[in-house]
Design a protein that fits this description.
Length: 455
């Protein structure tokens, strides 16, 4: 019988110590150490058994899995996954509670079940009747969709051997536990051990698996992000609760590009893919309003045109102006404000400045700099930017406008949506493949030239 030893694991960072401590020496958090059981001899024997059963194979003789993708029937979901689910892949879907993780999973699994694929949906949060109620609303009913309410991972593995499904869904990872550990479900030890056992099972059986994980208040999946190193693909659901817009973004994908993005709209019948998200983001754009600019940004292989809104008003608190941004990095916004104060001599020190990306989308690409700076300057001077103008470019610390990737794709998307002018970096003059028919290209070197063309 394996000897059981006790260790204490920090629920914040995963640090292990043989005795209890009030403060974690790694992440300095208080009262975060939880007692867990560790069977070192058992794990050692398992590692020896797995090493003895391995076989050396030349890579040229390994069977390719590139063509063995299982499409979910939801185009935006398949785009994020790189074309579909790969056999034996473990896909982690993360997001805040209630944002739509279980909805899109049940929608896609219902489609696969209607195509004849056997799907095993294991839920640790809902009963079978609750899952059916949601499946009726999403039109995902099928005899091939098998549901099970179980939280013990050893019993789940028995069901997998008995059913032999084509696809496996586990909802959610925080609710499952393994009998090898004595800690409560949802702790870092349980989450890590459950994910590792599922990982071994699906790799051995070549079953594509969807693993759903809730994001806690710190923005991590099940506490730390240790699961991201175990799984093959990590996708996050993004979006504001007050908006119908939802974005599915891939942050890790061993079988496809990152960061790819899929856009959905929340409807009574579930998540509906948005084929032209640029038109949807710009559909409610106000006319003749200062502080509004259009930027062409790149998310994975998709070009998106988004509206940047800025509001500059005199601060009521002396010496402490408010600076807030939604969808755009706050530190980047402060940097652009400092550049405009220094290089453009705009007196923004006593102004409250607010920046917002409409639709609830979040963009981290530096190509958004030019539109953010133009929107802030337009609101400060109360001047309207030409509504048929798109701005693309990164702003340097000296006020220069730097080039960005794939300018041709951004210009084509702007032209498709009816925009007439594109303000782009001057260094793009050396690019011969830029489309210039039907759209005017304005090359600028710094912010001074940008403001001359806009105002």
């Amino acid at each position: 019988m394996a000897k059981t030893t006790t260790i204490f694991v920090c629920q914040g960072c995963g640090h292990q110590t043989p005795k209890w401590m009030g403060k974690c020496p790694e992440c300095l958090s208080w009262n975060s150490l939880v007692e867990e059981a560790s069977r070192q001899q058992s794990s050692l024997r398992n590692s020896k058994r797995s090493s003895n059963s391995s076989v050396l194979v030349p890579i040229t003789e390994v069977q390719s899995i590139a063509d063995n993708r299982l499409t979910t029937g939801i185009g935006e979901f398949d785009r994020v996954l790189g074309g579909g689910m790969v056999e034996g892949s473990l896909i982690l879907i993360g997001g805040e509670p209630g944002i739509g993780k279980s909805t899109i999973t049940l929608q896609s699994m219902g489609h696969l079940a209607r195509l004849g694929k056997k799907v095993l949906y294991v839920s640790g949060e809902e009963s079978g009747s609750q899952i059916k109620l949601r499946a009726e609303r999403l039109n995902a009913l099928s005899e091939n969709l098998l549901v099970c309410s179980e939280i013990c991972v050893e019993d789940i593995l028995k069901w997998i051997d008995k059913v032999e499904p084509d696809v496996l869904v586990l909802d959610s990872v925080q609710t499952f536990y393994t009998a090898d550990l004595q800690s409560a479900p949802g702790s870092i030890g349980q989450v890590r051990e459950v994910a590792f056992k599922i990982f071994q099972a699906v790799k051995h059986r070549s079953i594509p698996t969807l693993l759903i994980g809730h994001i806690n208040k710190d923005g991590a999946i099940a506490g730390p992000k240790s699961l991201e190193h175990i799984v093959d693909t990590v996708v996050y659901f993004e979006g504001e609760r007050g908006h119908a817009y939802r974005a599915l973004r891939a942050t890790k994908n061993r079988f496809g590009p990152t960061p790819e993005i899929g856009v959905f709209q929340m409807a009574p019948e579930g998540l509906v893919p948005v084929e032209n998200p640029s038109e949807w983001f710009l559909s409610e754009r106000p006319e003749n309003s200062s502080g509004s600019a259009i930027a062409a940004t790149l998310e994975g292989s998709r070009t998106l045109l988004v509206e940047v809104q800025a509001l500059v008003s005199t601060s009521s608190s002396i010496g402490m102006p408010r600076r807030m941004s939604t969808g755009f990095d706050h530190n980047r916004m402060s940097l652009l404000i400092a550049i405009m104060e220094k290089r453009m001599e705009l007196n923004l020190q006593g102004e409250d400045i607010f920046v917002n990306l409409t639709g609830g989308i979040k963009i981290t690409e530096p190509a958004l700099d030019l539109a953010v700076a133009a929107a802030i300057a337009g609101s400060f001077q109360d001047k309207v930017i030409d509504p048929l103008t798109v701005l693309v470019g990164e702003v340097g610390l000296t006020g220069e406008v730097r080039s960005v990737m794939q300018l041709d794709a951004r210009i084509i998307e702007a032209k498709r949506l009816g925009f007439k002018r594109c303000i782009i970096p001057h260094s793009a003059k050396n690019v011969k493949s830029l489309p210039d028919e039907g759209v005017e290209l304005i090359f600028v070197k710094n912010l001074s030239e940008v403001f001359e063309h806009l105002f």
